[in-house]
Amino acid sequence: MKKIIIYIIALAMLPMVSFGQTDERRVKEEGKTYFVPHYFLQLQGGAATTVGEADFSDLFSPAAALNIGYKFTPAFGLRLGASAWQGKGGWVSPKQDYDFKFIQGNLDAVFDLASLFCEYNPDRVLAPYFFAGVGYAYGYENGATDINTGTHKLRYLWEDNKGFLGGRFGLGLDIRLNDNLGLLVEGNTSVFNDKLNSKYGGNPDWQINALVGLRINLGK
Predict the structure, then answer these.
(1) Measured between alpha carbons, how far is 87 from 94 in angstroms, rounded to an integer?
(2) Does the reported pTM lie above 0.85?
(3) Quick check: bond before 122 cis, omega within 30?
């Protein structure tokens, strides 16, 4: 974990060394500012929860995300990433909680709402954004296999590694720190079929994340 933290800090410092003197997002010419398409990196961490029979607070678990993307226009970009860490589920009678590990790949279309509805401004401090996309969760180390459910059985229990295809969407706020760095606050939801948490519920399984992190511009 210490190595991961050091690596993240190093990545965060890189733009200030490599791009500190220039802003790759814009070109100034005769008093006008033009947008330049560019790559960006996002590093995020926070907490996740889900909708289940246990108390809401009992289903919290850690979450992390890494995305790399490309902004084609001031209002539109795509990002490819990996996220997740751990999911949780709960059984009512007898009351038991369990966890399972998974990693999720995602492809998102990202829309800068400020640039979409207002003019382009590279110095804008607050830039809300919306995204929607697809995700694929790969589950492993399912703790549900160890719980005691008495005479009840988990209808969708999976013991081996298993994949789940789903959709995702969310909202975020990009807070500009300087030309190449931004602070991100993001909430997102991934929706999978009813089998992700091993329980039959008659409805999709929702994985909800609250994340904070950094956006780093990487240039053209």
Answers:
(1) 20
(2) no
(3) no
Distance from C-alpha of 106 to C-alpha of 82, rounded to nearest angstrom = 6
* Radius of gyration, CA atoms only, the chain: 20
Nearest to 102 by CA among 50, 149, 52, 57: 50
- CB of 180 closer than 8 Å to CB of 16: yes
Q: Which two tokens stand for residue 145?
A: 């296999």
Quick check: 130 and 109 in contact, CB under 8 A?
no
pLDDT in tens, 170-192: 999 999 999 899 999 999 988 88
Report pLDDT digits (tens) over 68-127: 999 999 999 999 999 876 666 666 556 666 667 778 889 999 999 999 999 889 889 999
Kindly report the backbone phi and psi dihedral angles of residue 177, in degrees, each rounded to the nearest multiple of 5, phi listed first.
-100, -45
Residue 40 φ/ψ, nearest 5 degrees: -145, 155
Sequence-distant (6+) residues with CB within 8 A of 187 are: 170, 171, 172, 208, 209, 210, 211
In this structure, is the dihedral angle defined by the CA atoms of residues 30, 33, 38 and 43, taken in order, positive or negative?
Answer: positive
Amino acid at 30: E
DSSP state of 193: -
141: phi > 0 → left, psi -120 to 50 → alpha, else beta; which? left
Cα angle, residue 31 at apex, residues 27 and 34 outer, rounded to 5°: 30
Judging by beta carbons within 10 Å of its beta carbon (0-12, 13-18, 19+), is residue 33 exposed, middle or buried?
Answer: middle
Alpha-carbon distance of 211 to 188, in angstroms, equals: 8
